[in-house]
Amino acid sequence: MSPLLTLFSFEARLAIRSGGGALMGIIFFLSIVTVIPFAVGPDLQLLARIGPAVLWIGALLATLLGLERLFKTDQEDGALDLLRMSDHPLEVIVFVKCLAHWAVTGLPLVFAAPLFGLLLNMDAKTIMATGGMLFIGTPALTFLGAIGAGLTVGLRRGGLLLPILILPLTIPVIIFGVAASYAVNDPLAAFKTPFIFLAAISLFALVIGPIAAAWAIRLSDD
User: Which of 5, 24, 65, 94 is the most buried (most CB within 10 A)?
Assistant: First the structure.
């Protein structure tokens, strides 16, 4: 496991140095949250009502920032060829790279969400629920995004195509994540159902994402 831990540490440091780390994602996240009140007006009740949706959309867009570099840098410097020849399966290597990307970009967004929720006049219960759902759902955004990163790794302008490929896959994550966040304060809404679906999607992405991304990388090499 030592080479995989070394790969995880290297990928995390590389993401931070290349501008795709926590600070860039949080700044972009904050920009989205602060712009929304100017667009919808000073209605505090409206801001509180759309707050969970705003946080989820902000987390999605912030996650997309560094996905293009997930495999692109390795492709350009030849490291991806070495990873393909590694003793470890390419699927495992992709899983470690995705996990490092989420730890550097997705996890900080989860911790920043409660503070940004205060800017949207959200109550404490909704803020904590949204933060918890982001913790469960943001891995799905990263691992599903890895599929698009693998498909576009050999394209010169793959960064323009990546969001088009990924956004349709993330729609279920947004739907169930926002629904679970709203259900906490709505006695007529069921919290358990969207929560279970969100967790299931994340587990599905953790398994399918690396397999599909590894297949796409091999396909681009051919």
Answer: 94
Structure tokens at 146: 């890895």
DSSP labels, 88-132:
S-HHHHHHHHHHHHIIIIIHHHHHHHHHHHHHTT--HHHHHHHHH
Predicted confidence (pLDDT) per residue in 30-78, tens digit: 888 888 888 887 788 888 889 999 999 988 988 887 787 777 777 776 7
Instruction: Give the chain's length.
Output: 222
Indicate the burial class of 8 (C-beta count within 10 angstroms; 0-12, 13-18, 19 or more).
middle
* pLDDT tens per residue, range 124-144: 888 999 999 999 999 999 999
Give the domain ranges of the chain: 2-221
C-alpha torsion 145→172→63→144, nearest 10: -20
Q: What are phi and psi of 121, to 5 degrees?
A: 60, 30
Q: Are 141 and 59 in contact (CB under 8 A)?
A: yes
Residue-wise burial string across 139-172, b where 16 or more C-beta atoms lie within 10 A, e elsewhere: bbbbbbbbbbbbbbbbeeebeeebbebbbebbeb
- Phi first, then psi: give them for residue 191, nearest 5 degrees: -80, -35
